[in-house]
Amino acid sequence: MLQHFSHQALFKSTIFGCLLFSSSLIPLQSTVANPQIVTTPQAKTIAQQVLQDAIAKEKLDNTAKVVQVARIGKGDTWMYNPVPYWKIAIADRHKNLVYFTTDNGNFRVLMQRNGQNIHSLGKPAQEIPPTAMITKAIQQAKEWGYPGEPVLTNISSAKTTWASGCENVSAPNPCDPFLSRGWKITIPHQRQSWVFRGETADDLQLIARTNPVIEGGLPIPVVNEIKSIASKHLQILPSVVLITKIEPQTFTDSCLGLGNLAESCAQQRIRGYRVTVAGKSQAQQIYRISSDKVYLRTEAIAGLPTRTDELPTAIARTVFNAAKSDLKKPIANLSITQVSPRFYCFRSPTAAPNEPCIPTQRLEGWNVTVTNFQKSLTYTVNLSGKILSKK
């Protein structure tokens, strides 16, 4: 069942866990009357952050102060794990507030107001993902271009299962996928979403980014084609490619306005789109594509010329830098004319010396031909971008 992190039910908050202890609700007792102040620099800093938050959100008066800072003990187990959380009490002339906050102070929840518990008993702990997974998901979302700070109450999670283990295995090697069980965590921003999946925080991975409003402006076959080519260029999953901008265009030739000196472009009006996509961090590509996806070009970007190949951009950059020296031309005056994938060929340890190897679908590298429109060179490149030979 999908869990949302709402203010009304603490159990739906991954950050603050579950309100279950020994199958019974243990009331949180205010200890304002018997204050305990922890005076470590970390505690003081976190307490002041909580105080400022309380003053702003609860509209406390100018007498508001911290009256208790203590570690949460077993008697305070509204949390599902005995992890080091802070219990911080704030009071002014009219209100007493008790907060729980994570050890680093990044996340907090108001547990009690004027002696009254403001949450009800929720789901068992096993139905709520660990705090560390939400923290890691937020961190990764920012690495993948999430703008600003996620709103914790909008984050949702669900238990999920998936098959894995055979992604990079090809014939003739046998492989039996194994079933994994973990969490799917969705972090929204406006109408976009960053979706993560993993068993623990350590193996959490981004599996999808969606931008349905913008994608809705493109025919589905065009969306699929753009994500397919971008996934190769950016070396990410097609589902993780994020379309950030589309511009309807009418191109004047079959090269979509990006022909080079060696091409003959048919003069005709072609309706299509200019599409910008994002990868990780600042990586992006810009494409021109016809509405029927017959014609597709990659615009010059990040120091590379226009392209029609599917070579990963990082590999293309390595090849262009080598060709710049070898062909003695600026990168802007070079073009990749052909890319041929090279696949691993399996040879059994018991095979006879003259027995041919068995071709597989496991990619081993590429043969890449580059021209300066006067001379061409073909480079053999491995998956890491190392140039093995040229001719």
The portion of residues assigned to helices is: 10-25%
C-alpha termini separation: 59 Å
Task: Count all strands and give the number.
Answer: 18
Summarize the biggest pleated sheet: 5 strands, antiparallel
Low-confidence stretches: 5-34, 77-82, 120-125
- Overall mean pLDDT: 83
Structural class: alpha+beta
Number of domains: 4
What is the chain-wise order of helices and strands? EHEEEEEHEEEEHHEEEEHEEEE
What is the number of helices? 5
Query: Can you list the strand order of the major beta sheet?
Result: 1-7-8-9-10
Q: Beta-strand percentage?
A: 25-35%
Overall spatial form: elongated
What is the C-alpha radius of gyration, as a whole number of Å? 29 Å
Verbal overview:
The chain is of the alpha+beta class. It has four domains: 8-125, no CATH class; 129-205, no CATH class; 212-298, no CATH class; 313-390, no CATH class. Helix content is 16%, strand content 34%. It contains five helices and 18 strands. The model is unreliable at 5-34, 77-82 and 120-125 (pLDDT under 50).
Quickly describe the structure.
The chain is α+β, with helices and mostly antiparallel strands and 391 residues long. The chain has five helices and 18 strands.
Describe how the helices and strands are arranged.
Elements: E1 3-4, H1 41-58, E2 65-71, E3 86-91, E4 96-101, E5 108-113, E6 116-117, H2 131-143, E7 156-164, E8 178-189, E9 192-198, E10 205-210, H3 212-215, H4 220-234, E11 242-253, E12 267-278, E13 284-290, E14 296-298, H5 313-326, E15 335-346, E16 358-371, E17 376-382, E18 387-390
Antiparallel strand pairs: 1-7, 2-3, 3-4, 4-5, 5-6, 7-8, 8-9, 9-10, 11-12, 12-13, 13-14, 15-16, 16-17, 17-18
